[in-house]
Amino acid sequence: MRNLTISIVACILMALPRAAAQQPDWVLVIHGGAGNVTPGRITPEKQVIYEAKLKDALAAGQQVLAGGGTAMDAVIAAVQIMEDSPLFNSGKGAVFNADGKNELDASVMDGRTGKAGAVAGVTIIRSPVEAARRVMDSSQHVMLSGRGAEAFAREQGLELVDPSYFYTDESWQEYMKVKERLEQEGRKGTVGAVALDKEGNLAAATSTGGMTFKKYGRIGDSPVIGAGTYASNESCAVSCTGHGEYFIRNSVAYDVSARMLYLGETVEQAAEYIINEKLKNQGGTGGLIAVDKNGSVSMPFNTPGMFRGWVTSASGAEVRMFR
C-alpha cells in the first residue's frame, strides 16, 4: 500500500506544470573574458573594481529586460558598458596588435530571426558591437571587415573616434612586455552577453580586441558566427572567450546548440563537455556563457578563472571571477 501511495504522489507531481512555475521571465548572463584570471594577477582592490563594472553591465541589460525590451537590446546594452571600460579587452582598453594598434572584432546573433552581424579588424568605431548589429539590421551581409566596415559605420551615423581613444597605459605596457618576450598574453579578456527576454527570444553578442601582439590581420572566433557567437530560439544563446583558433576549428558556439538539438543534452551537459573535455583534450583554453530557451544557464571554463555575472527576473545580480 505504501509503494502504491508513493507512486500516486509521484505521478501527481510529474503532472504539475513545474517548468512554467520555475522558468524566469527573463535571464541575462555576461562574461568579461577567461584566461589569466587568478587571485595572484588581480589584487583584492582590483577585484572590487571588476565586480562593480560587471554589475554595471548586468544592470544595463537588466533595465532593458525588466522593462519588456528585447534580448538583443539587452545584450548590446550590457556589452557596451564593458566596451567603454578599460578593464576588459574590448573597445577602450583593447590589447595592441604586433604593429602597436588596436584592432577590434564583434558579432551578434538574433535567436528569433536567425540573423547575424559581425565586424572585424576595425580601428575607429567606438562600439564594435553596435556596428555588428547594424551589419545585421541594415545590410545584406553577415560580416564586414577593416576599412569597409568603417565606411559602413560612417554611413550608418555611428560614433567614430580617433584610434587613440582605445589606448590605455595598461594595455600598452602589456604590449611592450609581449614585444620584449615575443609571446605573452595579457590578462584582460573578451566580453560577451546572452539573454532571454519576456517574449522567449534569445540573443548573443561578443566583442574583443583579439590577442595581444596578434599578427598578419589575425581574426579570432569573436566575430565568427557559430564559433564565438550563436543564438537560436530552438535551443540556446552562446558567447565564447578564449583561444580563438580552437573555438573556430570546433565551431564551439554552434556545437552547444547542435548537441542540445541532436543529442538531447541539456545546455549544461553540452557546454561542459565542449569546454572541459573536447577543447581541453586538444589543448584549447577558455570558456563560454549560455542560456537556453527555458532560462537555464551554463558558464563553464577550463582556465583558472573567468569574469562572469548573471541576473534573472527571479534573482538578484551575481558576479564571479574565480572557481
What does this 3D model show about the protein?
With 323 residues, the protein is an alpha+beta fold. The protein has one domain: (Glycosyl)asparaginase (Glutamine Phosphoribosylpyrophosphate, subunit 1, domain 1), CATH 3.60.20.30. Helix content is 38%, strand content 23%. The protein has helices at residues 2-15, 18-22, 44-66, 71-83, 128-138, 146-155, 169-181, 244-249, 252-263, 267-282; strands at 27-35, 104-110, 116-122, 143-145, 191-196, 202-208, 229-231, 236-242, 286-292, 297-298, 305-312, 315-322. An eight-stranded mixed beta sheet has the order 4-3-2-6-5-1-11-12. Strands 7-8-9-10 form a four-stranded antiparallel beta sheet. Strand 11 and strand 12 form a beta hairpin. Helix 3 (44-66) runs antiparallel to helix 4 and helix 9 (252-263) packs across helix 10 (267-282). The chain is globular. The protein starts with a helix and ends with a strand. Residues 1-21 and 182-186 have low confidence and may be disordered.
Spans of at least 5 consecutive residues whose pLDDT stays below 50 are 1-21, 182-186
Helical segment tally? Answer: 10
The CATH superfamily title: (Glycosyl)asparaginase
The coarse overall form would be globular
Order of helices and strands: HHEHHEEHEHHEEEEHHHEEEE
